[in-house]
Amino acid sequence: MDIFLLIFAATLLVAVLFSALAGRTVLSAAVLFLVVGFVIGSETTGIVNFSSTSEEVSTIAEIALFVVLFTDGMKMGWTDLRRAWRLPGRALGWGLPLTLGITAVLAHYLVGLDWPAALLIGAILAPTDPVFAAALVGDKRVPQRLRQLLNVESGVNDGLALPFVIVFLAVSSGSEDLHLGELGLELLIGTVIGIAVPWLIIKALHTRLFAATGVFEPLVPIAIGLLVFALSTTLHANLFLAAFAAGVTVATFGQKEREEFEEFGEIISELLKLLALMVFGALLSFKFLGEIAWTGWVFAILALIAARPIALFVSFLGSGLSMREQLAAMWFGPKGFASVVYVLLVVTAGIPEGDLIFHLVALTIALSIIAHSSTDVIVARSFSEPDETPAWQGPPIDNGTTPPKP
């Protein structure tokens, strides 16, 4: 583990040093961490020895997903969702289930998975991750409504897909292991904890008796998150649904707490995402990829170029989006961090189709990271005005002929 942390720190430093260049080109920090993980994996160079069922992998995945869902939920309170719901509502209300369904159909007929397992892989691959399309989401030349659409959608769909993953995983485990009442209770307790704990703490802080000040103000959401994590673990509630509900509750009732924590939360969230990506890369190898049949490769490609594009094309009929905006939204459905962790949950559950699902999801995510991280700058640049110098070219070079600015 020491050597892994050393390599992660060195890779992080390289990503920081070249971040400005990456922002103007097709280079990507996500691809860097994935490739480094691939190189140091046990079946490539053997520098680290991770397996999909190891305790270290499951612990990193569990903590990272809790933090990411908590911070994702904090991006959007109920007021924000109501204000910005028209286009994201189409993507989430229609696009998410349609993407799930189309992916499940592909998995069933191409790969031969039974319907519960096919629906499970559809739920795993339904969420999107904006970290792999950062240039598109953060570029001011891209229309605001498109950036808002992708931000809201990717911030919420991790949490919305989670109940589907849990239910289909339980069904795929076999009827003898399926306890819907127990499953429903876990989801209910997780939701209650996620709403009640932050609401009570924030309400207490708004009274005369209690108040956070100075350095303790940004610690309020951290304290809330730790308490939600501990209570959910102790009471056997669903940890991830509790995290997402807690984030939404903080964003709804604690605007001040949300603003104090926002920058720090984003840093921690992105750091853990990159850590999980390197771990994920270490689980891959040429041997691993060679074990996937040609039908699996066809499935992975169609899951990227067909499932979401078809789903969003249907969802945005009559929406008023321009064709260029629709095409950008249809393409930028990168499979990211949440899918990585959800598939690790499937592996540790030990279902019969778990190994095949892991192979298919891992291939799809790897292809998505490479494809989407390498095209975000190009698509963002396409929104430039015809006479505007693309950002990737950098500032013009003064060769002595350009008059000085006044």
Can you describe this structure?
With 406 residues, the chain is mainly alpha-helical. Helices cover 71% and strands 0% of the residues. It contains 19 helices and no strands. α10 packs parallel to α12 (239-253) and α15 (294-315) crosses α18 (354-373). It is globular.
CATH fold descriptor: Na+/H+ antiporter like fold
Strand-and-helix sequence, N→C? HHHHHHHHHHHHHHHHHHH
Radius of gyration from the alpha-carbon trace, in angstroms? 22 Å
Can you count the helices? 19
Sequence stretches where pLDDT stays below 50 over 5 or more residues: 386-406
Average predicted local confidence, pLDDT: 80
- Structural class from helices and strands? mainly alpha
From the spread of the alpha carbons, the general shape counts as globular
Q: Which CATH architecture is right?
A: Up-down Bundle
How many angstroms separate the termini?
A: 57 Å
Q: List the domain count as a whole number.
A: 1
Into which percentage range does the β-strand content fall?
under 5%
Main β-sheet: number of strands, strand sense, barrel status? none
Helix coverage percent: over 70%
Count of DSSP E strands?
Answer: 0
* CATH class designation: Mainly Alpha
